[in-house]
Amino acid sequence: MISVAEAIQIVIDETQPLRVEEVLLDQALHKVLAKDVVADLDMPPFDRAQMDGYAVRAEDVTTAPICLKIVGESIAGKGWHNEMSAGQAVRIMTGAPVPQGADSVQQVELTHELKDRTVVELLESVELGKSIVKRGSEIRKGETVLKAGTTINAAMMAVLASFGYATVAVSERPQASILATGTELVSVDAKPGMDQIRDSNNYSIAAYTELAGGIPTRLPLASDLIGELTDRINAAANSSHLIITSGGVSMGVYDFTKTALQQLGAHVFFEKVALRPGKPTVFARLPNGTMFFGLPGNPVSVSVTFNLFVRPALLKMQGASEVTLKKETAVLARAVKGSHDRESYLPAQLTTNDDGELVAFPLKWGGSSDFVGFAMTTALIIIPANTQTVEAESRVKVLHMP
Ligand code: AMP
Ligand code: MG
To answer: Which pairing describes strands 343-352 and 379-383: parallel, antiparallel, or unpaired?
Structure first.
């Protein structure tokens, strides 16, 4: 039995990045950047007015009220490209270039125009540099603005657009085939008959796969028949980067996943992790190179083991710079029990207390089959192996769940 940390490291070491592809910008959301994004322009590209108002020279407006002659108008997209002199003002709009000779912008609310709009009266003095964003003050041409390995979010779409990235170099997304095994399983649209249950793992695994940037394909349910398992796994190996199964990895007489792997000539990296829930997790590689994760059947074990082991593989395949779940320290709200030989990952909800500290509330749940109790989980509390009880108010490590 290996530790969780060792198992995660094996997964990371055995995972190779996929190829890089150029996609249109509108296809880039949630993909992982394969190259640094570099500014091709200063931002802003010119001294820009931040307010509607008047471009002036601050030294003309040290005392107020004072009248200046309006000599032109600078609007966004069409500036006033002359030299502004002492005693003059240029009517200016938000986003427009500040003319040569002006050094400040007074907002329109603090002014009013007189004499057929040829003169503006400034009602208050103006501070030097007011309401101007200087050229290059946000970003300079040539600066790296986003790093390779970053997952592109909505705000980053604006960054990419502003610097002319009509296409973006991103990683290919991993194709994941998802196979639930178990003779007792029926699909979501069926009413379970005697001794049957609906498959839920295929849906949670597909959802977690998408959250980690993968493209899931749900395969038809497999019964606990060795031939059916080897056929399904073989077929999926040719069309996917990884296969994720659930069920059939424990010690039962009809747990055939490992037998199937053996028959297919797979190389097994690990098949037992010192983890609760999720001890019988299998990680292997098929002869054609396809990665294989055999997760336990219990739905909670699926959620925990997927996010500990499969998610890093999916993210590493995409070249992501962060592949493991975000870890933090929190105050434990209620005492919990550990396990004598395994690390425990217990479902919890995170909040903050009045002192601004992160607090982990362990959820009431009925064990690794209780997917309803688990559904409100936002984090996992890590309890080290060989721990009997961790008291309330202790500091514990927590992992944020996606
Ligand atoms: P196993 O690991 O195959 O022994 O399964 C452990 C438990 O998880 C059993 O109670 C199964 O019925 C249940 N289980 C297995 N696969 C699924 C699935 N796809 N959806 C929901 N429950 C499952
Ligand atoms: Mg089973």
So the answer is: antiparallel
